[in-house]
Amino acid sequence: MSGKLRVVGGTPLTGEIMVRGAKNFVPKAMVASLLASDTSILRNVPLIRDVDVVSSLLALHGVKVDYHQDSGVLSITPGQPHLPKEPARMDSLAGSSRIPILFAGPLLHKIGEVYIPDLGGCHIGDRPVDFHLRVLEDFGAKRIQEREGMHLIAPRGLKAKQVHLPYPSVGATEQTLLTAVMAHGITELTNAAIEPEIMDLIAVLQKMGAIISVDTDRTIRIEGAEQLTGYSHTALSDRIEAGSWACAALATRGDIFIRGAVQADMMSFLNMYRKVGGAFEVKDEGIRFWHPGGDLRSISFQTDVHPGFMTDWQQPLVVALTQANGISIVHETVYENRFGFTEALRRMGAHIQTYRECLGGLECRFGQRNFYHSAVIQGPTPLHPADIEVPDLRGGFSHLIAALAAKGTSIVSGIDIIDRGYEHFMQKLRSLGANVEKIS
Ligand code: EPU
Fold this sequence. Notes:
This protein starts with a strand and ends with a strand. Helix 6 (170-180) packs parallel to helix 7 and helix 8 (239-251) packs parallel to helix 12 (393-405). The chain is 29% helix and 25% strand. Strand 4 (64-68) and strand 5 form a beta hairpin. The strands form six sheets. Strands 17, 18, 19, 20 and 21 form a five-stranded mixed sheet that branches. A four-stranded mixed sheet has the order 22-23-1-24, covered by helices on one side. It has helices at residues 26-32, 49-60, 87-94, 104-111, 130-139, 170-180, 196-208, 239-251, 267-276, 311-321, 342-347, 393-405, 425-431, and strands at residues 4-9, 14-18, 40-43, 64-68, 73-77, 113-116, 142-145, 150-153, 162-164, 186-190, 211-214, 220-223, 232-234, 255-259, 279-283, 286-290, 296-297, 300-302, 324-331, 351-355, 374-379, 387-389, 408-413, 435-438. It is built from 13 helices and 24 strands. The chain is an alpha/beta fold and 440 residues long. The protein binds uridine-diphosphate-2(N-acetylglucosaminyl) butyric acid.
């Protein structure tokens, strides 16, 4: 991973920034456009690398994509897509992104086959795709394993199925939605994920002509349609990015107004922010987050699927918890390996210990196994500057927050990964008064 940043920390971040469309929604809406032949328009699209990657993946399939960065308007015209002429290019573009596997349903409907590159693991866990493949095979797809990557075909088309997910996986729910909307018959999906990003994807699919209902017990019913049309939609805003900047305000004793942050999508985050002792004020155009002075309070919580406290907020909040008075306990139940980033925090002076046991919550899937998925943080401890290497997207932003909170000069390496999900983060940091300089 490349890109090095010199950070002179110790200054509270203050000012205003804007968040645009959600990284974990926009690429899925882009894939959904493949289900139509005519043009789809998506607004509020951020300039992040994941959008770039999905645009290139679509282009490899013959799809026309136009993006106007300033207005954030993206138009996608699939016409008649085809398999990529250079599959190797697909492998190198995809990296560790999970998005290529979501091309499966739409392309199996449109052209009867799809190529999926090797997706690989990442620093937060193995991230298998077994649920996705089971869903696709249940619908009638056949797998042809290649030396690298995978070919799927649907010789007899795709037929609706009863699908029960072993865990409410976001990706597998999206896979089922994108496959079921044009499958023959009615699909009943149980134990589905119901994250706001999924609800927005359902809104997009409904605009395209789909009939989808969502019950209160994680059951989603999808009636297959023969034909879908392009959509026009404004993406919901990025609640992970908003939460990350809110934690930066807390850890640096700052005050940030986040234009575009939406209360309804951040309820569990706002509750936790208040419990820790952070202050916030909800306005029509966004939410102001600040450190009100005095001590922060320690807390105990676990991450969970929606409507629980989301895993992607865990890493930035842990940085703020190093500044809270007392012992905090965090139980990570979504990914088995999302505390790797705490090693750098320990080197910076934080008192954090990780455990295999399920602490501070109910027993989870990772209990009694060899995963250090609980953390105990004892604060407050001043953070010292250090040279650190970022491990993954959210862990990387959290390291950046730690460096901004530590008085003195830190060098943060591997920061290019942060562009994957944080639009204009360097400009935003500078506008909030951070002393940061890219040195390679
Ligand atoms: N899982 C399986 N098998 C599968 C799919 C998932 O075992 O086939 C497991 C995963 O290993 C994980 C759990 O189920 O332990 C949840 O995974 P999920 O499928 O919900 O996650 P995802 O769809 O791969 C999306 C986001 C993640 C976010 C999670 C949870 C995208 C591109 N990614 O991942 O975002 O953490 O949902 O909300 O939408 C990030 O933005 O940094 C990020 C990692």
